[in-house]
């Protein structure tokens, strides 16, 4: 049995600034479920629950997490602040709000100072954030790597099938 798959302890933390971000962040959770990666989901707000943010980031590695996916919108300081208090890889998801088209969220997350990296995906790109976390795990786990190869082949088959349908 693949040790990653047999783990019931969460390996990836999916956190978001508000429950209102779930409409986007559920895509990350879905990908992790599809790849059978144990994960947890938590609302952690940089501004409304700052103590919880610090605790979450500082305890993440000792609790067994290997990566954190953090989504937030507007003044989106959650991913960057988490990256400041953990050395685990942090993947940032800019969540689009009703104003400013999500550009505010993107710019708040992407422009990190040198030394404190956040891997920022596209606006509302929670699916790719999930896949990136799976790839991080797959870098050292052959079974997860094989699943990712199968996923890529499947994508290729889907594109070719659509291509053929176009010509019918
Ligand atoms: C951010 O404020 C959250 O990440 C969310 O995207 C945004 C709005 O939060 P709510 O007012 O909907 O709780 O911190």
TrEMBL record:
It holds the Pfam family AIRC. Residues 10-159 form the PurE domain. The keyword Isomerase applies. Pathway: Purine metabolism; IMP biosynthesis via de novo pathway; 5-amino-1-(5-phospho-D-ribosyl)imidazole-4-carboxylate from 5-amino-1-(5-phospho-D-ribosyl)imidazole (N5-CAIR route): step 2/2. Its EC number is 5.4.99.18. InterPro entries: PurE_ClassI, PurE_dom, PurE_prokaryotes. Substrate binds at residues 18, 21, 48. It catalyses: 5-carboxyamino-1-(5-phospho-D-ribosyl)imidazole + H(+) = 5-amino-1-(5-phospho-D-ribosyl)imidazole-4-carboxylate. It comes from the Bacteria. The keyword Isomerase applies. Keywords: Isomerase, Purine biosynthesis. GO terms for biological process: 'de novo' IMP biosynthetic process. GO terms for molecular function: 5-(carboxyamino)imidazole ribonucleotide mutase activity. SUPFAM superfamilies: N5-CAIR mutase (phosphoribosylaminoimidazole carboxylase, PurE) (SSF52255). PANTHER family: PHOSPHORIBOSYLAMINOIMIDAZOLE CARBOXYLASE, PHOSPHORIBOSYLAMINOIMIDAZOLE CARBOXYLASE CATALYTIC SUBUNIT. Catalyzes the conversion of N5-carboxyaminoimidazole ribonucleotide (N5-CAIR) to 4-carboxy-5-aminoimidazole ribonucleotide (CAIR). Belongs to the AIR carboxylase family. Class I subfamily. This is N5-carboxyaminoimidazole ribonucleotide mutase. It comes from Microbacterium marinum.
């Amino acid at each position: 049995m693949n040790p990653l798959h047999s783990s019931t302890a969460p390996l990836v933390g999916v956190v978001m600034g508000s429950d209102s971000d779930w409409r986007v962040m559920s895509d990350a959770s879905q990908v992790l479920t599809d790849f059978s990666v144990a994960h947890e989901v938590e609302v952690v707000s940089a501004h409304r629950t700052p103590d919880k943010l610090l605790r979450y980031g500082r305890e993440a590695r000792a609790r067994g997490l290997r990566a954190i996916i953090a989504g937030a919108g507007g003044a989106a300081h959650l991913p960057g602040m988490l990256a400041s208090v953990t050395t685990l890889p942090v993947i940032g998801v800019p969540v689009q709000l009703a104003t400013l088209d999500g550009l505010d969220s993107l710019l708040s997350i992407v422009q990190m100072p040198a030394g404190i990296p956040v891997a920022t995906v596209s606006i509302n790109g929670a699916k790719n954030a999930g896949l990136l976390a799976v790839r991080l795990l797959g870098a050292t786990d052959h079974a997860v790597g094989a699943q990712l190869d199968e996923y890529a082949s499947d994508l290729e088959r889907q594109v070719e099938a659509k291509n053929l349908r176009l010509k019918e």
